[in-house]
Amino acid sequence: MRLKLNTKILLGFSIALAVLLATSLAAYFSIQRLGYYTRLVGHTYRVLQHTSDLRMRVRDGQSSVRGYLLLNDSSYLATYSTAVSGTDANLDSLRRLTADNPVQQRRLDTLRQITEEEKVFLNQWRQKKPSADAARALLTNDRALLNRLRDVIQRMRSTEEDLLHQRNAGQDFYEKTTPIAIIISAVIAIITVLWLFRKISQEVKANDLLQAELEQVNLDTNRRIQIIEQLADKVVQGDYSVQIKDKEKDSLGNLATSLNRMTQTLDEVFGALEKRNQELDQFAYVASHDLKAPLRGVNTVVKWIEEELSHELSDQMRSYLAMMKGRLSRLEDLINGLLQYARVGRTQHQLEEVNVHQLVSEVVEMVVPLDFTVEFASTLPTLTTDRLSLQQVFTNLMSNAVKYHDRGAGTITVSCRERKRAYEFTVADNGPGIAPEFHEKIFLMFQTLRDRHTAESTGIGLSIVRKIIEEERGSIHVESDGQRGAAFVFTWPKVSQASKVSA
């Protein structure tokens, strides 16, 4: 299986790193062992030094007493005191240095006993009268004790010299092997890096050739993609008659063929759509004039009957005529609502800076009775948007809050929270509330939750609100437990969709 270049590089560097790591560990181990044996050698030399010092101090003590006896010079006694006190220090040091060696510890016990005997012996001779005979007697009598001292010290030194020989051997071994291990590891690492460099160089040359071929292919591909992008730009600008002349039998060629079919289809579809829009505009004109004209005529006839035949109408007939006028008024409102719903998203947006607090205050003056209270729970923002669309949303929501309130005077609360890309507005009331099962139904066209005889409604207002908000890429929902109060929460983008299209 042929490895990729990145895999080869990673593998080679991993091997080199592993070798270097092994080298470092071997060197670290060797250096640690070398340091260990070096410390042991130094330790042994200190033991040997202290044994030599101990023997020398004992001999100095004897020489001082002998000099005093021979020359009757009391200054030798001061030298004796110094030598004797030094033996205690040597013994304490040897005790610490050989703490891990029980054999040497036992020998130290013997040495301490011998040195104590020597002190007692020399102190006795210090009290004698100085003379040459006394000095000779001291030498003769002290010879056995000094021989014992020499024998014990010699055994200690022999043991330490054996240890020194072993430790010097270990030290010599690691002094020799540490550089060799480092050199061998370094050579292996160099060989690995050189092999890796050779492999990388071969792969780089092959990649350079492949890169040159790819660059040529990319140039050709970029040229063809630019042609496709130009077609896309023209389509965005509304020109659906453009075509791409690309006969290559590859993916881009197939894409060009598909785009040509797409632009042809779009040209036909948008032509038909434009025709349908014209027909819809014509229908709106007919509905707003020709269809409403008969309604006004019927309404006028009803007024004539009420005015000219008022003395002949019974109470029952008068109620029928009032019911007819109500139905005619509702039918006219229904036609106006349908026209308004059809125009949403099809009219030209006029972007301007809108102070939402001021806009809501104007809506309150238009649709909220004086016995209602309107509260602003938070500061309302100022944003650039289509004023009429936002005004229509607040107008419909606040008029609904008034229309469906069940207790005369009520309270309407308007608040706002800033989100990342939009503002979240809330219009809440303290009316009868909306049951959860109707939270989606109320946004459907012609849907109303109350008897039309109780509150006149076409059931289009909230449908218009949702359509306006969705045209701005916002959302709306209602929050209510169905017991008391309802809150309509909707989002309105900080940047209007109309401004995005124009940009």
**What is the straight-line distance between the termini?**
54 Å
> Could you say which overall geometry the principal axes of the C-alpha atoms support?
elongated
How much β-strand is present in the residues? 5-15%
SS-based class: alpha+beta
List the secondary-structure elements in sequence, H or E: HHHHHHHEHEEHEEHEEH
Number of helices: 11
Biggest beta sheet summary: 5 strands, mixed
Low-confidence stretches: 451-455
Mean pLDDT: 78
User: Which percent range fits the helix content?
Assistant: 55-70%
List the helices and strands and how they pair.
Layout: H1 5-71, H2 75-97, H3 102-126, H4 132-236, H5 251-288, H6 292-308, H7 315-343, E1 351-355, H8 356-367, E2 373-376, E3 382-386, H9 387-403, E4 411-418, E5 422-429, H10 461-471, E6 476-479, E7 486-493, H11 497-502
Parallel strand pairs: 2-4
Antiparallel strand pairs: 1-3, 4-5, 5-7, 6-7
How would you characterize this protein structure?
Helix 1 runs antiparallel to helix 4 and helix 6 runs antiparallel to helix 7. The protein is an alpha+beta fold. It starts with a helix and ends with a helix. It is built from eleven helices and seven strands. The strands form two sheets. A five-stranded mixed beta sheet has the order 2-4-5-7-6. About 1% of the residues have low confidence. Helix content is 70%, strand content 8%.
